[in-house]
Amino acid sequence: MISNRLKSIDLSTTMEIAAKAIELKSAGVDLIDLSVGEPDFPTPQHIKEAAKNALDNNCTKYTKNKGTNELRTAIAAKLERENNLHYTTEQIIVSTGAKQALFNAVQTIVDKGEEVIIPTPSYVSYIQMVKFAEGKVIKVDADETNRFKIHVNSLKKAITKNTKLLLLCNPCNPTGAFYDKDELKEIARLVLENNIFVICDEIYEKLLYDRIEFCSFASLNEDIKKQTVVVNGFSKAYSMTGWRIGYAAAEQNIIDNMAKLQSHSTSCASSVSQAAALAALTSLQDSVEEMRIGFEYRRNFAFDSLTQIKGLSVVKPSGAFYIFPNVKSFFGKSFQNYAVKNSHDLALYLLNEAKVTVVPGSGFKCEGYIRLSFANSIENLNEGVLRIAKALNKLK
Ligand code: PMP
Ligand code: GLU
Hints:
Blueprint: H1 4-7, H2 13-26, E1 32-33, H3 45-56, H4 69-83, E2 92-95, H5 97-109, E3 115-120, H6 124-132, E4 136-141, H7 152-158, E5 163-169, H8 181-193, E6 197-201, H9 222-226, E7 228-233, E8 246-249, H10 252-263, H11 271-282, H12 286-307, E9 322-323, E10 333-335, E11 338-340, H13 343-354, E12 356-357, E13 359-360, E14 370-373, H14 378-394
Parallel strand pairs: 1-12, 3-4, 3-5, 5-6, 6-7
Antiparallel strand pairs: 2-8, 7-8, 9-14, 10-11, 13-14
Helix pairs in contact: 3-11, 4-11, 5-6, 5-10, 12-14, 13-14
């Protein structure tokens, strides 16, 4: 009764674990949730006020399929101002989260059997989106020794005459890896030589540490811009995960086809959320920087405390709010009824023994690691790390 297409798709590991954490917390379990990737700060007050005004002004109807003119114009201005990218309002589509923008872009570009290169570890949904489009996933390992970044040579080897698309996440979920301008240029050279499209997911653009400067992939040159879909959103930078607003910018033909697909799925993004997103973009950006500073402090704390745990090897993330320790030294060990053979077993063990939720690396197609989110208070991070250390110490 269920379609074969859906049978091949897995439930999002992150969403599954996040739902489990919500359930356990509401059942009164003293849980430290380091699984979910969402800022713990409230949405800034002025953004909430804009939504209230929108409601009072009866801004409660369908908007244009691509999004309101006001919001798309503000997004175009943001891309120009901050990323040196010129797009017209019509080259921008607002979607129900960056996730829908990514989904629409993948379905728009990829045909059955075409190859899509995905650096792994990768965001949980990319592979499933490609499977939904009946594309062929080609993984390229971004290993720990290269700070979880792909080598250009590995990318080169993965390219065939069938390669259609590269799905790049910069900065990266789940590793916090960051490609700088020079590294992006090398990737761009290969992309142009081989006539490949790129979807560059830049949703963590504002969450970069150590004074790193962000460069949007499409801004490298006019040729690469023509082959790139820029995806971004409001969930992370403005702490607006539940508002569900993301966007994409690209060549007209791509955006128009994404709009066609969207017109048959969600019609448009929520009108009230679009008004809130407009306020987010057009008002002072102080809260974005305040949150970033908060995350940097927590990143340092999480890194320093996790590196103290014997058996973990940790790469310091440059961006986003995740840390991705290597936990392979615990495989083959056990405590009472728990035998840890892989990252899934370890995540389950930490949930039951330490009452801490983490996401197994297998969810990101990278066995041997777990992902912890440091978008949490220092108190919770401290308690979470102590509990993890205690539980890991019991494994013999
Ligand atoms: N891309 C990445 C890399 C993410 O981590 C997320 C997190 N949810 C998304 C896209 C989707 O974000 P949104 O909430 O805007 O759908
Ligand atoms: N991006 C978040 C995460 O990785 C939210 C979940 C999701 O989008 O799948 O935890």
